[in-house]
Design a protein that fits this description.
By secondary structure, this protein is of the alpha/beta class. The protein is built from 9 helices and 20 strands. Bound molecules: manganese (II) ion. The site of manganese (II) ion has 5 residues, from loops. Residues 8, 49, 85, 87, 207 line the site of manganese (II) ion.
């Protein structure tokens, strides 16, 4: 079974409160079309966060509809499975699902309700069976419950008489298990891998925007060579575009081949060419800028040479900036007709030396909304508190998280006992 796995499209995103990214998403879908014709996958999976906001505008919805319909027309035998993420409105995704079902395209907005598991046939909505294997698709569920994941995998196994590959889709952050070498997993509110059940060969995850195969530290970010692992494999495909300026790593779609149930899983990253690249001015090999004029001329130079891209400025913290600094930058960029785009979140350097004069870190609204873990916030503001150690705070948080997890396990057991009694 061969699948193309992607997630976190964030269609309709307006970056830095100003820039519409539809042409970037269009360029991504062009590449996706190209890969579908080149690799001929049995299924295309989109593991949540289709849209950037719960109520995307008409143009964004039309873009999604047209892009998916076009993929289906061009590759009619390829299964397409789309689940809702935490950014999506599950109800809105669900509302369109019966229409998409006419084209055999699966859109899943909601997980099963708590009493659904008692009704035979509940699983039909979540299972896609192809000639080559099974896809059990679950969307983002605010209260993630282990029995749902296990139940849907078990129902797949009832049908899986020929040992075909089993793929599970989920949209969540995952922690726990043996994830040595993946310290960044803990930066987001997360669930333990065991809570997603067992019995799948490939877990196609969405939510974390950096692509990674969990539990394996040989997943080189820049390599497009095919890596094989014994099943099961747990993987984030990562987002196609950098959704915030902290995501400058390469973005890719995962091409996944699974030979049989409990067999081997091969993964190849298909790197996405970005319509607009991300640049830091001056680039990190140079010293940070020390005057506003220096920045103005570097930005002008960039606009002439590069002509397109997202830029972010690197400025020494001791540099005095005039009150019309931001306006001056926008004035320079105007000459490029919105092609060079400015992220007003400046990277200030040598803050430690200027701790008293250092500016307070600023946050975009979208960034704050995504920040489900207080540690992310602490990390960004830690330079303001020279007496605190980030590592110690992180350890304390992890300890609390572990205790809370144990408590909720106990609560679950107790409430089950009560029900049985
Ligand atoms: Mn996302």
């Amino acid at each position: 079974m061969r699948i193309l796995h992607t997630a976190d499209l964030h269609l309709g995103q307006v970056l830095y409160q100003y820039y519409n990214r539809v042409d970037e998403h269009e360029y991504f879908f062009q590449q996706l079309n190209q890969w579908c014709s080149e690799y001929n996958p049995d299924a295309l999976l989109i593991s949540g966060d289709i849209f950037d906001i719960q109520q995307p505008g008409a143009a964004t919805k039309a873009f999604f509809n047209n892009s998916i319909a076009r993929l289906h027309r061009t590759f009619p035998s390829m299964a397409i499975v789309v689940t809702a993420g935490n950014h999506d409105s599950g109800s809105r995704i669900e509302a369109d699902s019966s229409l998409w079902a006419l084209a055999d395209i699966k859109l899943i907005g909601h997980g099963p309700s708590s009493d659904a598991l008692d009704h035979p046939g509940w699983e039909d909505r979540f299972i896609v069976q192809t000639d080559k294997g099974f896809i059990a698709a679950l969307p983002f569920m605010p209260s993630l419950r282990k029995e749902i994941f296990q139940a849907v995998i078990d129902r797949v196994q009832d049908r899986n008489l020929h040992n075909l590959p089993v793929v599970l889709m989920a949209h969540t952050a995952v922690s726990g298990g043996d994830f040595s070498g993946h310290s960044d997993i803990g930066n987001i509110k997360s669930f333990f891998l065991e809570e997603l059940g067992s019995g799948y060969d490939y877990l196609a995850l969405g939510h974390i925007h950096r692509s990674q195969t969990l539990g394996h530290d040989i997943d080189c970010e820049f390599s497009n060579s095919t890596l094989s692992y014994p099943a099961p494999v747990v993987r984030y495909s990562g987002s196609p575009l950098h959704v915030s300026c902290d995501e400058q790593y390469p973005h890719s779609v995962s091409l996944v081949d699974i030979d049989k149930h409990q067999g081997s899983v091969s993964i190849k990253k298909l790197f996405i060419e970005q319509r607009r690249h991300f640049f830091i001015i001056p680039n990190e090999k140079m010293p940070a800028a020390k005057s506003a004029d220096e920045i103005y001329s570097s930005v002008s130079e960039f606009c002439k040479k590069q002509k397109t891209g997202y830029i972010r400025l690197r400025i020494d913290a001791s540099t005095p900036l005039p009150p019309d600094f931001t306006q001056n930058i926008y004035n320079i960029l105007e000459t490029t007709g919105n092609e060079v785009r400015y992220n007003p979140k400046i990277i200030f350097e040598n803050i430690a030396e200027h701790i008293d004069s250092s500016p307070t870190p600023t946050f975009e609204i979208a960034e704050l909304q995504q920040m489900t873990n207080p540690l992310d916030f602490i990390k960004k503001t830690i330079t303001q508190y020279p007496d605190l150690s980030f590592e110690e705070i992180k350890k304390d948080f992890e300890e609390v998280e572990r205790k809370l997890h144990n408590m909720s396990e106990k609560d679950n057991k107790n409430s089950k006992l009560k029900v049985e009694n």
